[in-house]
Every structure is written in structure tokens, then in C-alpha cells.
């Protein structure tokens, strides 16, 4: 059953009386999440455009947005810091490269520290 807000998905589409009409969207299907041992994650720090604050970036995750959010939440909880998971990368506050790399290796991910 569709949610009541499915009209938002059709914004910009005109009404059609054709019974065979199908809406076309430019959305790409989400890729399946690769197993941990096949993931190759890069852990690095970044200071650009962050007001001089240091953040740890985890890049290279291949999978669904829900799995990225779950991994980001697990890293934030285990490191005891704030952060976000969006656009295919996980952002953690502070320089936690080695700690994050150790956690990810313990989970079975392939990790490269830059």
C-alpha cells in the first residue's frame, strides 16, 4: 500500500488520460550492498570547508543508503562522537583514522588509511 504522500513523487509530471501511461523517473536503482570482505573503504581526514575543524571521512562504501546509515551509526557509537552518513561517505568529528580503521578491520572490511 502506498503512503499518502506519494503525490510528491509525481511533482512536475502532467496528468495523462492514457490508461497505459507509465511515469518515467531519472532515479537509478539502488545497488545491493556488497559483503564486508569485498568492500574497500578509504579512511582519511579532511579540514577543507569546515572552519578549521578536523573530520574523519570513510569513503568507498558500496551499498544501500540504509546500510550506510547503519554503519555510520555504529561507528559514531563506538567512537563516541557525532557525525553524518550521506552521499556515499561517513563523516565523523575529529581525527579518528586509526580507531575507525581498527573497528572496520575487526568487522571484516578492507581498509586503507590515507
Automatic annotation (TrEMBL):
InterPro entries reported in the protein's UniProt record: DENR/SUI1_TIF (IPR050318), SUI1 (IPR001950), SUI1_arc_bac (IPR005872), SUI1_dom_sf (IPR036877)
Return the protein name. Translation initiation factor SUI1
Q: Which SUPFAM superfamilies match?
A: eIF1-like (SSF55159)
User: Which Gene3D superfamilies does the UniProt record give?
Assistant: SUI1-like domain
Alphabetized UniProt keyword annotations: Initiation factor, Protein biosynthesis, Translation regulation
In which organism is this protein found? Tannerella sp. oral taxon BU063 isolate Cell 6/7/9
Q: Which CDD domains match?
A: YciH_like
Q: Which Pfam families match?
A: SUI1
Give the superkingdom in one word.
Answer: Bacteria
- In what residue span(s) does the SUI1 domain sit? 48-108
The similarity annotation says:
Belongs to the SUI1 family.
Q: Any keyword Kinase?
A: no
Q: Which PANTHER family match?
A: DENSITY-REGULATED PROTEIN, DENSITY-REGULATED PROTEIN HOMOLOG
Tell me the GO BP annotations in alphabetical order. Answer: formation of translation preinitiation complex; regulation of translation; translation reinitiation
Do the record's keywords include Protein biosynthesis? yes
UniProt GO MF annotations: mRNA binding; translation initiation factor activity
Amino acid at each position: 500500500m502506498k503512503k499518502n504522500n506519494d503525490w510528491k513523487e509525481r511533482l512536475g509530471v502532467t496528468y495523462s488520460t492514457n490508461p497505459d501511461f507509465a511515469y518515467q523517473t531519472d532515479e537509478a536503482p539502488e545497488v545491493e550492498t556488497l559483503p564486508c570482505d569485498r568492500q574497500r573503504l578509504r579512511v582519511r581526514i579532511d579540514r577543507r570547508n569546515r572552519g578549521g575543524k578536523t573530520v574523519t571521512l570513510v569513503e568507498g562504501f558500496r551499498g544501500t543508503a540504509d546500510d550506510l546509515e547503519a554503519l555510520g551509526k555504529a561507528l559514531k557509537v563506538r567512537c563516541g562522537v557525532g557525525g553524518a552518513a550521506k552521499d556515499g561517505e561517513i563523516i565523523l568529528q575529529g581525527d579518528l583514522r586509526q580507531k575507525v580503521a581498527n573497528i572496520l578491520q575487526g568487522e571484516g572490511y578492507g581498509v586503507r588509511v590515507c
